Amino acid sequence: MPRRRKRKTNWKRQEERALRLRGVRRGTPDAKKLSRAFIGPALARAEVEAQAQAEATKTENDYRQGGSGDESDRDETS
After folding, report:
1. Among 64, 61, 62, which Cα is nearest to 74's?
2. What is the pTM of this model?
3. Cα 62 vs. chain centroid, distance in angstroms?
């Protein structure tokens, strides 16, 4: 039966390791980059919501008029 080798290093299990955190001092944040990061997605979301609202309003108006599109699509003879 083979023998088990004993580790020759100072290996420890993950639970036994001591972790240390150090704070890193940085300069002041770049206001332009932060504003782009926050405002860009908000503008994109607002644009999508405005398009959805416009589509819903158009659909609602078409439903009230009894048509399914522009008046130019209708046949004038009927």
Report:
1. 62
2. 0.41
3. 33
CA pair distance 74, 62, nearest whole angstrom: 13
Q: What's the CA gap between 67 and 78, in Å, rounded?
A: 13
Residues 59 and 44: their CA atoms lie apart, in Å, by 23
CB contact at 8 A, 68 and 62: yes
Q: Residue 58 and residue 68: Cα distance in Å, rounded?
A: 10
Helix, coil or strand: residue 20: coil
Give pLDDT tens digits along the chain (78 positions): 677 777 666 666 666 777 788 888 888 889 999 999 999 999 999 999 999 999 988 887 777 777 555 555 555 554
